[in-house]
Amino acid sequence: MKKINDLVSEYLQEIKGFDTRVIIRSRAVAKRMESKTPEHARHAWHGKRVGAVAARVAGCLQEDVCTAFLAGLNHDAGKLFVPAYLLRDDTDFDDKKYQLIQLHAVAGFHLFKDICLDLALIIGRVHNTDDNGYGVSLSDYLSDASQSQINAINFNSRLVSICDYIDSNRTRPPRLGKDVFSDGSYVSLEKQLFKKYPQNQRIVVAALSVYSELF
């Protein structure tokens, strides 16, 4: 069975329209991630595959498909700078540890901002799509951006965020707290996603369908 890093390298060869440095850095991130924390490398692999296919299924332009691929692959790149012990899924996970892990969103942004600002902003906003989470804000970096540029960044960050939410729910111990329960009853993953991403239900349906088929 091929290593995730080898599979990533094969897929990266098909990406068009991006600075070569983005591809080189993405390949380096995947290699280091697999070495440091294999479970997060698998998570990134799932995210980029689901994101790219879901974007295609939802009728997005090829440019958005490639962007979803790269953003999904690198959305946790900042975790390379987080101590490995904080990334282990265990029962001793408190708010202090969670706050330290949140720093990965900004770290991932800084890892790509010098070569592709839009991609870096998407990565940095995966956990801050509604400006009520953690990560970067567009207003800090895009003072003269066009509305179409802002819309594209927001759309792709939500797309990757949806895929991230799905894979985390399916493969890791739940830490979703109040979003999982309503009046003492379990809320399905689809309903959780519809509530969290009300403007992107088409992407939610596509991503759930693609995830079920791929994994």
Can you put this structure into words, describing what you see?
- The protein has one domain (4-214): Hypothetical protein af1432.
- Helix content is 61%, strand content 2%.
- The protein has 10 helices and 2 strands.
- It has helices at residues 4-12, 20-36, 38-57, 62-74, 95-101, 103-112, 117-125, 147-171, 189-196, 201-214; strands at 181-182, 185-186.
- A hairpin with a 2-residue loop joins strand 1 (181-182) and strand 2.
- The radius of gyration is 16 Å and the shape is globular.
Can you tag this structure with a few keywords?
about 220 residues, two-stranded antiparallel sheet, Hypothetical protein af1432, mainly alpha
Mind sketching the topology for me?
Layout: H1 4-12, H2 20-36, H3 38-57, H4 62-74, H5 95-101, H6 103-112, H7 117-125, H8 147-171, E1 181-182, E2 185-186, H9 189-196, H10 201-214
Antiparallel strand pairs: 1-2
In short:
The protein has 215 residues and is an all-alpha fold.
As residue ranges, the low-confidence spans are none
Report Rg. Answer: 16 Å
CATH topology name, in short, is Hypothetical protein af1432
Tell me the total number of β-strands: 2
